[in-house]
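Practice problem 4.
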């Protein structure tokens, strides 16, 4: 009787180990699918980040070019205004010198 009981117990344990092993295999496969899905999502995000970075670099280059163009244009305009003001200041200084000379001449004769 003990031999039969032992065989039944062993058969039961064998069946339970088989069920545990099948459960582990099922979990391994499910985790494998989940990891594959996660890796695909990571790859998708990496691709999108690369696309955004490339576009940002394009925008940065374009903005840099525009800023350089505005800087050049403003520098030229400032130089023009500076030259024009210098000419006007020189003209006013010349007029003032002539006026002083005329005033001094009138004082001396007057």
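Answer key:
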């Amino acid at each position: 009787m003990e031999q039969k009981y032992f065989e039944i117990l062993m058969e039961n344990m064998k069946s339970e180990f088989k069920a545990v092993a099948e459960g582990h295999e099922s979990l391994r496969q499910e985790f494998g699918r989940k990891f594959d899905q996660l890796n695909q999502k990571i790859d998708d995000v990496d691709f999108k980040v690369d696309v955004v970075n490339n576009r940002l670099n394009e925008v940065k280059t374009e903005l840099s070019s525009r800023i350089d163009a505005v800087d050049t244009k403003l520098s030229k305009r400032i130089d023009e205004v500076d030259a024009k003001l210098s000419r006007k200041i020189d003209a006013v200084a010349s007029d003032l010198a002539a006026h002083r000379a005329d005033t001094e001449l009138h004082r001396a004769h007057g």
